[in-house]
Write a structure and sequence with these properties.
- The structure holds 2 protein chains of 2 kinds.
- Chain A is an alpha+beta fold.
- Chain A contains 2 helices and 6 strands, in the order βαββββαβ.
- In chain A, β2 and β3 form a beta hairpin.
- By secondary structure, chain B is of the alpha/beta class.
- Helices cover 26% and strands 24% of the residues of chain B.
- Chain B contains 10 helices and 22 strands.
- In chain B, the strands form 5 sheets. In chain B, strands 1, 2, 3, 4, 5, 6, 7, 10, 11 and 12 form a 10-stranded mixed beta sheet that branches. Chain B has a 6-stranded antiparallel beta sheet with strand order 17-16-22-13-14-21. In chain B, strands 8-9 form a two-stranded antiparallel sheet.
- In chain B, a hairpin with a 2-residue loop joins β18 and β19.
- The two termini of chain B are 33 Å apart.
- Classes of the chains: A alpha+beta, B alpha/beta.
- Chains A and B meet through loops of A and α3 of B.
Amino acid sequence: MITVTLQRDKCIGCNYCREHAPQRFTMSKKDGKAVLLNSVEKRGFFVARVHDDELDSLQNAAAACPVKIIRLSGY
Amino acid sequence: MAPAGGFDSMMAAIQGGANSVYFGIDQLNMRARATMNFTLDDLPEISRICREHNVRSYITLNTIIYDHDLPRAKAIIHTAKENGITAIIASDQAVISYAHSVGMEVHISTQLNVTNFETVKFYSHFADTIVLSRELSLVQVKKITDAIKVEKVKGPSGRLVEIEIFVHGALCMAVSGKCYLSLHTQNSSANRGACVQNCRRKYKVIDQEDGHEFAIENEYIMSAKDLCTIDFLDDVLESGVSVLKIEGRGKGPEYVKTAAQCYREAADAYFTGTYTKERAAEWKYRLENVYNRGFWSGYYLGQKLGEWNDTAGSKARLRKIYLGKGSNYFDKIGVAEFLIESYSLQKGDQILITGPTTGVIEAVVEELHTDKGPVEKAEKGQYCSIKTDTPVRRNDKLYKLVAADK
C-alpha cells in the first residue's frame, strides 16, 4: 500500500495531479483546489492509503506538482 | 494605488496616503504562491477598513482561468460585490465578462499587455480603467490618453476610460505575463501566479563542445532592476495617466508605506507646482532605503533595453532586524511595552513597528525603560518600554533598522 498526502491549503489549482492521476485527484468545484479522493484529513493534511498499481501515476503527479504538496510513502 | 499583501501592508498603504489598494484572494492571482493572500472571509473587514479611510479597494483576479476555477472566480466576484469592493482587476475574458455581467467594475490587468488605442477601445466595453503594458514609452502612453479624450472613449460607468500605469517596483524581464521560464523548469506557471523567479538567479554560459565556461561580467544575466519613476514623475503625469500603481504585494509594510508616501508627496507636489528635481532626489533616497534591486526608468523613456541587477536580493540601504513583539500599550502615557526576543535594543536605535492594525511606525528610541527604570540597552528576554506617538498592539513586530552593510 502507498500512503498519499496532500497539503491542500497550499494548492494553486493547476490541475496537473488530475491530469496524471485522475483516479485519485479531482478539482473542487467549490474552491478550485485539488481534492484527494477517499482521504481523511489530519490537521490540514489529507491522507489516503492506496494500492501499489497507482504508483506510476501518483509519482508523475507528485513530480509535476509546482508547489510540491503531494507526498508518497510506504512503497 | 498601493499593494496590500496583508492587513499590515494595507494599513501601511493607507498611512502612506494611497487612494486605493489592491490585493489577492486565495490562489487566483499573480501571487498565488504567497502565504499571505487574503481569503473570502477577510473581505468584510477589508471593505470596512477601506470605507473608513475612504480608500478604494481592488481585487486582483488576473491569472489564466481553467474550467475548474470558474465557480471560485464567480464566488470571489459575488462576495466582492456584496461587500462593496470597488473593482476586479482581470485578464481572463471569463472573469471580465462575468464581472461586467453582474455590474461589478472591471479593470484590465497589465497581464493583457494593452499597447495600443484600438485595444483600449475594445476593452472599454467592459472596463473603466485599463492598466497599460509596462513596456510602452511615455510618448506611446500619451498618444493613447490623447486619443481617449479626442474620441471620447467611455467605460461602462459613462466616464472616460482611465489609464493606469506601474510607476514603481519589480519588473518582469519578459513582457509581463509572457514568460514561460518558471513553467518550463518547475512546472510552475507564472501565469497562474506561481512564478519561481528563475530570472533572479545567477547563470553560467558553457561551451557545450569543449566544456569551457565563459567569463561573464554579471552572472545575473536576466534579473531586471526595479522600476522607479520618481525622478521623472512630472513627465509621467503629463502623459495623461490617472492612476499611478506601485508593485509589491510580496514586500513588507515598510516598503509599501515609503513607496506610497513618496509618490503621494511627489504627485501632490507636481499638482501644486512644487515638484523639483532636488525634491525628487530626496524621494529617491528614501525609496532606496527600502527593498529594491537597484533602480532604472523601465521602458518609459524609450531607453536601451534592460538594465540588469547584480545581486540576489535587495539593495536597500537599510536592513531590518527582528527584535521582539508588543506585549502591552499604556494609552494614557503613550508608552508601548515590548518583549525583546532576539538581539538587543539601545537608546538612539532607529526602530520599525509593524502590525495588522498598526500598519507601520518608524521612530528613534529616545528613552528606554525596563523594570529597573531608565536604561541604555534592553537585552534578549527583557521587557522594555518606549514612548510612541500612536498606539501599538499586542504581537506587533518590533524591528531595528541598521545600515545594510553592517
